Amino acid sequence: MGIACANAWPGLIELCVEAVQAVRPANKVRIIPKIGCVEVNSHSKHWPCLFPQHGPGRKHERAITLAAWQKEIVDRHTQEFVHGLLHSDGCRSVNRVRRPLKSGDRWYEYPRYNFTDLSVDIQRLFTDALDRLGIAWRQMNATDISVARREAVARLDEFVGAKY
Description:
Layout: E1 2-6, H1 10-23, E2 30-34, E3 37-41, H2 47-50, H3 68-76, H4 78-89, E4 90-99, E5 106-116, H5 120-133, E6 138-139, E7 144-147, H6 150-159
């Protein structure tokens, strides 16, 4: 099992290593350098049991559904699930908008979260989790989901935190 982690986020690499060690404490965890990233790697014949969604081909071209026991965990730990998804395939940024007016351009900005994934199934897992948490979201395009309402961003800020 290998998880690619961007070098830009050493704290997330550390969290990934800790998570893999927590799930399979008897297995050795290696960090393998790659161009622009590292692979957090651990071998076990049991990984397919823990991640039955894994399989041949691209994830966005095959069905990604949670097994009943995985759904129970996600339902119990929805904030942690959203936190992990945003740290792996999302970001918090400041959106800057220009409104041209006769009196001159008016600029305003606001924070928002974006989540990007080619897999519609993974997008649905993310948006279903947001719905369970009562967090408003919008589908921006075929791959991107935006959380931009002030109260929704504030709610995510309570438990997501910055990448590091």
